[in-house]
Structure to design on (384 residues):
């Protein structure tokens, strides 16, 4: 296998273009985003090796906020430090933010969302093939020893049993750390524990740009887990505590995050537009994503040092195994929801063949899947 290409200096323009394209085509949620980044930066450009990529993924999973966005920010940091992280993260977020603003404008003016079900019907099976390929490639490296395979199996069981993502990652990492040293060697520490923040008050507070920023900043700084966890946070704050949205508006906002490419956290952009127009969209987006940039700036300088530490390396090995278990769980859950009929299965089969046999770029697979989905739906052969 070829060594990672660490010698060539990457321009900020190149970083911006690469992550903008990824952000514009990365449908399918965080697991799909991770798979596409691995294909682009490990296989095609060789900026990272698989072990280094897994380390960045593990760190991103262990800090609050949108993990795939934080992975993009980490990769930008590795190429051009602080400016690279800002450019990579902003470029990855940009397309979804723009589309969410457009959806907010359409929703405000017409009271409904553009129909995208047929497009997603074809995109989702193609993205499942991309995620599955990432799992099959990353797992042999994350589970290279018998000990790591036991840890991966344990993480897989815990994940399918319904244990939260953060606890699967931390638990597996701590088990790996304990397994790597004698029982008398000292105490184990937990790097992050997600705090539970109860509603401060039942009464509504005035809607201002500063209060809007704070609500989304708090969410971005405290949230671990998937878009469904985001839904719970936003419902508790925006619907129940503050009364800024009703249930139907919140569900439509989450739908926008699902049907647009890039990070699902751009749900905040749509909500910000509903509440305060263009300025509200920008403020809400800045609020929910700014903690991710701060967390990466704090953790990125320590990634290589962590790998050189025996204890930290053992912990990362456990978290890497757990990350692969979570990817498989996500693949299974998404597959159950997306492979609903014969045409969807055929799209998945064709995408898998093109990906595994001909190594087609995932971005083209996404576009082709969307076209096939629209064609199948128009012909009345299947679809939602």
């Amino acid at each position: 296998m070829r060594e990672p290409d660490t010698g060539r200096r990457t321009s900020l323009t190149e970083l911006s273009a690469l992550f903008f394209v990824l952000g514009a085509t990365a449908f399918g949620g965080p697991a799909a985003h991770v798979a596409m980044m691995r294909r682009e930066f490990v296989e095609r450009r060789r900026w990272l090796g698989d072990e280094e990529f897994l380390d960045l993924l593990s760190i991103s999973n262990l800090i609050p906020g949108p993990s795939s966005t934080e992975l993009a920010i980490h990769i930008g940091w590795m190429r051009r430090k602080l400016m690279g992280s800002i450019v990579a993260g902003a470029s990855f977020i940009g397309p979804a933010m723009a589309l969410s603003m457009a959806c907010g404008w359409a929703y405000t003016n017409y009271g409904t969302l553009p129909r995208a079900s047929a497009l997603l019907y074809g995109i989702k099976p193609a993205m499942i093939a991309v995620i599955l390929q990432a799992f099959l490639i990353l797992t042999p490296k994350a589970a290279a020893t018998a000990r790591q395979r036991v840890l991966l199996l344990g993480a897989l069981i815990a994940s399918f049993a319904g244990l939260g993502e953060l606890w699967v990652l931390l638990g597996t990492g701590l088990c790996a750390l304990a397994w790597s040293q004698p029982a008398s060697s000292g105490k184990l520490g937990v790097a992050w524990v997600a705090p539970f923040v109860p509603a401060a008050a039942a009464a509504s507070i005035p809607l201002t740009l500063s209060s809007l920023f704070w609500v989304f900043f708090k969410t971005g700084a405290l949230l671990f887990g998937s878009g469904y966890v985001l839904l719970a946070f936003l419902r508790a704050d925006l619907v129940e505590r503050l009364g800024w949205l009703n249930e139907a508006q919140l569900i439509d906002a989450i739908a926008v995050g699902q049907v647009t490419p890039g990070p699902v956290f751009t749900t905040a952009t749509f909500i910000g537009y509903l509440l305060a127009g263009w300025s509200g969209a920008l403020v809400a987006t800045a609020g929910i994503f700014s903690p991710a940039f701060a967390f990466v700036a704090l953790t990125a300088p320590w990634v290589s040092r962590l790998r050189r530490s025996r204890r930290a390396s053992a912990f990362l090995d456990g978290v890497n195994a757990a990350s692969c278990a979570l990817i498989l769980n996500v693949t299974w859950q998404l597959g159950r929801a997306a492979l609903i009929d014969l045409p969807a299965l055929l799209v998945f089969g064709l995408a898998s063949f093109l990906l595994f046999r001909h190594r087609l770029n995932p971005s083209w697979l996404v576009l082709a899947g969307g076209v096939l989905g629209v064609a199948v739906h128009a012909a009345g052969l299947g679809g939602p």
